[in-house]
Every structure is written in structure tokens, then in C-alpha cells.
């Protein structure tokens, strides 16, 4: 039996990411936007591609402290 690592590669979805990039930034409405991984993971692991949102380059660089306005008490993205 082959055991799967708990650090196995995350699921990638390039078509979904392309669609996310076609949307305006959720914070300011600017274009172009980037697919920002907004899910929370431990030890620096990235979340799946389905847990992304469109952010312009400026808002994406501001980091997690800036995007907390989008999260409700459970940490889920709202809006």
C-alpha cells in the first residue's frame, strides 16, 4: 500500500484561474487582476485554486491584513 503524503500536491485548475483573472479586483474594481490565494493554510501551504479571488496587483501585494475585510468570523470569504 502506498501512503499519500499529507503534503501532496494541491489540485490545480488553470481554466478557473484564467476566469478569476478576467474579473475586476474585489476590493477596488481595478483591472487587470491576479488570482490571489485567499484560503488559510498552516505552515505556508497554499490553498487550492478554487479558494482564490481576483485582486489587483496593489491589493495583492498588501497581503493578508488587507483582505481580512472580506472575511466573516469563520474566515470564509464573503461578498
User: What is the helical fraction, as a range of percent?
Assistant: 10-25%
Structural class: alpha+beta
Low-confidence segments, given as residue ranges, are none
Mean pLDDT: 76
Q: Please count the helical segments.
A: 3
The geometry reads as flat
The helix/strand series, from N terminus to C terminus, equals: HEEHH
| Cα Rg | 14 Å
Strand order of the largest sheet: 1-2
- Intertermini distance: 44 Å
Question: Biggest sheet, open or closed, and with what strands and sense?
Answer: 2 strands, antiparallel
**How many beta-strand segments?**
2
SS strand fraction: 5-15%
Label this structure with key terms.
79 residues, alpha+beta, 3 helices, 10% strand
How would you sum up this structure, described in words?
This protein is of the alpha+beta class. The chain has three helices and two strands, in the order αββαα. It has a two-stranded antiparallel sheet. The relative contact order is 0.21. The model has no long low-confidence stretch (mean pLDDT 76).
What's the arrangement of secondary structure elements?
Layout: H1 14-21, E1 34-37, E2 52-55, H2 57-62, H3 64-67
Antiparallel strand pairs: 1-2
